[in-house]
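Researcher: Sequence recovery benchmark, item below. Answer with residues only.
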């Protein structure tokens, strides 16, 4: 499998792609996802885990909101993983993650995930390379466990935003009153570590790829949402689900 080099992947949609046509196609997919989710929930044979990673201001919250907005909230759960608590730190690093793995019939979204434990921890030297490699093996085993023993289908997305676009969005959080609640002064300090984050992300992609990553150009929200919606629609359609008959 070819190694992923983020510097060689565009953060914008192909120039020839028609924005309005793409948005219309995405809207149709979103409507169809409603019925597909209903099938998933009713049949209760499969689980879906959507992992969304990305730098600050890459659009994780917006992607989750806009792609899943038509789905029944009874069948979708979103978990945002922030800095671990003292209780979580007293367990293995996957303990807090496994608790939120999806049940059959459910779609679970991770806004950030177990991958933070081989990303931010390495950037800040809280985790050395030896421990990181051990954790990567554990992550691969964990995802394999979910797939093989609970019929869990995993989609992994990295929202690939440019540093220039990130800066614009971070500044917008200062100026736009509706977004000021997202402002975190530390985000600007983290942005200065961009090159190191890219290195750690690439190492993550190239070592934790038994479940493949989708690199999502994310400078334009409409294109980002079309890719995520298409991937989820393709996955659910491919399960060939059927409504169960009357219970006897």
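Model:
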């Amino acid at each position: 499998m070819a190694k992923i080099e983020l510097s060689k992947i565009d953060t914008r949609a192909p120039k020839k792609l028609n924005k309005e046509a793409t948005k219309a196609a995405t809207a149709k997919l979103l409507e169809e996802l409603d019925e597909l989710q209903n099938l998933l929930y009713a049949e209760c044979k499969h689980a879906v885990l959507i992992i969304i990673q990305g730098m600050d201001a890459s659009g994780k919250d917006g992607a989750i909101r806009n792609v899943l907005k038509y789905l029944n909230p009874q069948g979708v759960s979103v978990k945002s993983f922030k800095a671990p608590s003292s209780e979580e730190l007293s367990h293995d690093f996957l303990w807090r993650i496994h608790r939120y793995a999806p049940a059959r019939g459910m779609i679970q979204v991770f806004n950030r995930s177990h991958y933070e434990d081989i990303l931010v921890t390495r950037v800040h030297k809280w985790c050395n390379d030896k421990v990181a490699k051990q954790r990567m093996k554990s992550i691969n085993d964990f995802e394999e466990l979910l797939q093989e023993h609970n019929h869990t289908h995993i989609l992994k997305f990295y929202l690939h935003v440019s540093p220039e676009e990130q800066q614009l969005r971070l500044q917008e959080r200062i100026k736009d009153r509706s977004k000021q609640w997202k402002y975190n002064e530390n985000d600007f300090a983290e942005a200065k570590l961009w090159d190191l984050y890219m290195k750690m992300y690439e190492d993550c992609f190239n070592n934790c790829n038994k479940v493949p990553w989708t690199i999502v150009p994310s400078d334009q929200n409409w294109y980002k949402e079309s890719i995520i919606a298409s991937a989820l629609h393709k996955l659910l359609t491919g399960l060939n689900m059927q409504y169960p008959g009357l219970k006897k």
